[in-house]
Amino acid sequence: MSLQTSVERFVKANKVMVMTACLLFALAFVTTLSTGAVVKPRQKTVGTAVVDVRDDIVEIREELERLKSVTNKVYPEVPILNEFQRKRILITGGAGFVGSHLTDKLMLQGHEVTVMDNFFTGRKKNVEKWIGHPHFELVMHDVVEPFMIEVDEIYHLASPASPPHYMYNPIHTIKTNSIGTVNMLGLANRVGARLLLASTSEIYGDPEVHPQTEDYRGNVNTIGPRACYDEAKRMAETMCYAYEKQNHVQVRVARIFNTFGPRMHLGDGRVVSNFIIQALQNKPITVYGKGQQTRSFQYVSDLVDGLVALMNGNYSKPVNIGNPDEYTMLQFAEKIKDITGSESEIVYKPLPKDDPSRRKPDISLAKREIGWQPKVSVHDGLVKAIKYFKAELDAGNKMVKNGRRSGPYAALDLYEKNSQT
Ligand code: NAD
Ligand code: UDP
User: Fold this and answer.
1) Which residue of 103, 267, 360, 395 lies most exposed, with the fewest beta carbons within 10 A?
2) Is the pLDDT of residue 69 over 90?
3) Which ligand ends up closest to the CA of 275?
4) Contact (CB, 8 A) for 53 and 26
5) Percent of residues, the chain, with pLDDT higher than 90
6) Is the distance from the beta carbon of residue 271 to the nearest atom of ligand 2 less than 6 Å?
7) Are residues 397 and 288 in the same domain?
8) What is the CATH number of the domain that holds 269?
9) Among the three residues 46, 71, 96, which one is the final residue of a domain in this structure?
10) pLDDT of the residue at 5
11) What is the number of domains present in the chain?
12) Which domain holds residue 55?
């Protein structure tokens, strides 16, 4: 086996370590030679042949240059915390829209982050900038299967969140949020980790109380098209408190309201991305029903701040995390037209079954218990999101029908049918 082949094999398995070792070795060797500390031997015996070691040095130098070009990745700067401050954190669904922003925040705080994701709706691209960083791991895994790891905290986000996506494979949505949550609570119990569940405003269903407070118990149709998500999240919450009561697992439950921002997939199918993409392309903006239903939208950085504050606080009951700024969908379409300067017409499509007629969080509890409230206005958040979507469209990431043969992004066309029964 040639020297180059063996170096390549070993290096593939231990890139960073080998690079550092080689660099140190080469530096020491070259320094020694250049200072004249060792003049002999410059020859070594290979079999019966005597060869000049300087050839090896040249070869190693070349190999180092090649490796540098592969691994010379510049990472965002992270603080170096000591062993007692640096937490080991698992984020399930960390390659998704929210999870990837949470990853950034925790990495930038200096913690060790493991992202576990099955890439159902998430993408490697979302966490690409951290791949190879010594504080970061990316594991492809389905949370429905047990997962063993030693961690201090678990942010359990794995679950499709967009209605077209969670309705695409309702059984898997149920399994992800039920079996997946049991798996994560079991893990938290075994290793003594604190677990935060990404729950949702959907647990309030089509609410009769407005704005929604945490003590409102909700109005969910158990057999409607949204039930696979709503009921599974409700059950996930129940499981958290069963594990808290019976096994003393430390749990946190965030009831997340509609969130938007960069890294939403072009095929996400939720209202913010749909409207922006349509407006940017001067295509008709699709308002479902008469557009009189309301939602309240928060920018993703606010959500991430809220999740971290909740995880680190002492309050263990469910907390609404959302921005109370409420719009009808018609107002929202006009707002996006206005910011983008679009000439899109507004067209009306059938209202999905059980589509909640209004939604707005009461965030008094979040303010009081974890000292959190949103900082980014909907307008400012939209400007940032529009910039992101424009860049995606300009980069040629247009939605191509039938470009993918499976998965939720291939199934947006099924939504009209899936959401009616
Ligand atoms: P997303 O679809 O972008 O991200 C979800 C991630 O979970 C993806 O990376 C996906 O691949 C992964 N995932 C799905 N099923 C999995 C499985 N079985 N095993 C492992 N990974 C799996 O959605 P998001 O908007 O980032 O939502 C994240 C979490 O926040 C979800 O739990 C969602 O229910 C909750 N939430 C989000 C919103 C919102 O407006 N974004 C609102 C309420 C609740
Ligand atoms: N909606 C719409 N046009 C779209 C997508 C969604 O009018 O192209 C409406 C949808 O009927 C709902 C609201 O926008 O009333 C928010 O929908 P989304 O799918 O973003 O999330 P939801 O809050 O329903 O989970």
Assistant:
1) 395
2) no
3) 2
4) no
5) 76
6) yes
7) yes
8) 3.40.50.720
9) 71
10) 53
11) 2
12) 3-71
Q: Is there a single domain that holds both residue 263 and residue 214? A: yes
Instruction: Give the pTM.
Output: 0.86
For residue 35, the model assigns a pLDDT of: 47
**Same domain as 105, residue 51:** no
Same domain, 180 and 291: yes
355 lines ligand 2 (CB under 6 A): yes
147 in the same domain as 61: no
Same domain, 18 and 112: no
Whether residues 52 and 94 share a domain: the answer is no
Measured from CB, residues less than 6 Å from any atom of ligand 1 are 92-93, 95-99, 117-122, 142-144, 157-161, 176, 180, 198, 200, 256, 258-259
Whole-number pLDDT of residue 337: 98
Residue 105 falls within a domain, yes or no? yes
Q: pLDDT tens-digit profile of 237-276?
A: 999 999 999 999 999 999 999 999 999 999 999 999 999 9
Q: Of the candidates 44, 71, 98, which is a domain's last residue?
A: 71
Identify the pLDDT of residue 48. 65
Same structural domain, 308 and 229: yes
Residue 82 inside a domain? The answer is no
Q: Is a pLDDT exceeding 80 seen at residue 410?
A: no
